[in-house]
Amino acid sequence: QVQLVESGGGLVQAGDSLRLSCAVSGRITNSCTIGWFRQPPGKDRQFVISIRWTGGKIDYQDSVKGRFTISRDNARNTVDLQMNRLKAEDTAVYYCAARYSGDVTYTYWGQGTQVTVSS
C-alpha cells in the first residue's frame, strides 16, 4: 500500500504562486507514478500533471503547461506541485495519487487540499 498526504493549499489571488506537497510513504517503488489531479467545483476530477517516482517522464495537462511544475524532494520524500500565475479557473480540490507501472488507473489517493484563486 501507498499512503499520500497533501498539504499547502489555501486562498490566493490571481497571478500568485502556490506550492503543494504530497508526502509519500509505504510500498513505493521506482516503477510508481505520482500524479496530481484536481476537482473544480461542480465538475469531474481531472488530471493535472504526473511524474515517475524516479524523477523522469513528466506528463502535463495542456492548460497548465508553462505554469505548473512537478518535482520530487528526496530528502522529504514528497512530490511537489509548484503552481505559478494562478488563474481563477485553477480553483479546485487538488489530490495526489499513485499507481504502479502495471496499473491503468491510480489506486492510491490522498484526502485532497483546497486551492482557491480569487480574481
Features:
four-stranded antiparallel beta sheet, seven-stranded mixed beta sheet, mainly beta, 119 residues
What integer is the average pLDDT?
Answer: 94
- List the secondary-structure elements in sequence, H or E: EEEEEEEEEEE
Shape descriptor reads: globular
Helical run tally: 0
Structural class determined from secondary elements:
mainly beta
Q: How much of the residues is beta strand, in percent?
A: over 45%
Give a short account of the largest sheet. Answer: 7 strands, mixed
How far apart the termini lie comes to 39 Å
Per DSSP E runs of 2 or more residues, the count of β-strands stands at 11
Helix content: under 10%
Radius of gyration: 13 Å
Low-pLDDT runs: none
Structure description:
The chain contains no helices and eleven strands. The chain has strands at residues 2-7, 10-13, 18-26, 33-39, 46-52, 59-60, 68-73, 78-83, 92-99, 108-109, 113-118.
